[in-house]
Amino acid sequence: MKCLETSFLIDVLRKDPGAVAKANQFEASGERLSIAAPTLAEILQGAYSRGGTDLREAMEVLAGLEVLDLDEPAATEAGRLGAELLRRGLSVPTVDLLIAATARVNQATLVTRDRAFSRIPDLAVETY
Predict the structure, then answer these.
(1) pLDDT tens digits for range 18-65
(2) 98-123 pLDDT tens trace
(3) Residue boundaries of the structural domains of the chain
(4) Could you tell me if residue 51 is left (phi over 0), alpha (psi between -120 and 50 degrees) or otherwise beta?
(5) H or E, element range at 111
(6) How far is CA 3 from CA 45, 48, 87, 89, 122, in A?
(7) What is d(CA 67, CA 103) in angstroms, rounded to the nearest whole number?
(8) 30-67 burial, b if ≥16 CB within 10 A, otherwise e?
(9) What is the DSSP string of 93-107?
(10) Picking from 9-13, 32-36, 77-81, 119-123, which range would have the lowest pLDDT averaged per residue?
């Protein structure tokens, strides 16, 4: 299963050629696609603030995706990951920790262009 991160979805909505090609590849393969609940919140915040066509297009892209819950195991994993990174002298925004932890506990590969996710140990990441 792929877990689509915010940067990927924004790039799809902006018609970035690399993101669109990757999205077409996923569609052709029948790959199971999901998003973490915090990603849903980030995308909708931007879409609702823009409204109109932007909101409609975002809703269309989101409609076919499974939303992975931010539940107790994911929140616990995010806390553990954040503490581990701080011990190494690294800082990752809390929302990114929540997204990464949700992908990890659901054994999903995170699809992103955000290089900060590469700092998170044992997170399967796919770029484009």
Answers:
(1) 999 999 999 999 999 999 999 999 999 999 999 999 999 999 999 989
(2) 999 999 999 999 999 999 899 898 99
(3) 2-126
(4) left
(5) strand 109-111
(6) 19, 22, 27, 27, 15
(7) 11
(8) eeebbbbbbbbebbeeebeeeeeeeeeebeebbeebee
(9) -HHHHHHHHHHHHTT
(10) 119-123
Distance CA 80, CA 62 (A): 29
Task: Tokens for 50, please give them.
Answer: 């823009």
| Domain 2-126 homologous superfamily, CATH | 5'-nuclease (3.40.50.1010)
Beta bridge partners of 125: 110
pLDDT at 125: 97
Rounded Cα distance between 118 and 92, Å, is: 11
Question: Which two tokens mark 48?
Answer: 């609702």
| Cα–Cα distance measured from residue 43 to residue 53, given in angstroms and rounded to the nearest whole number | 14
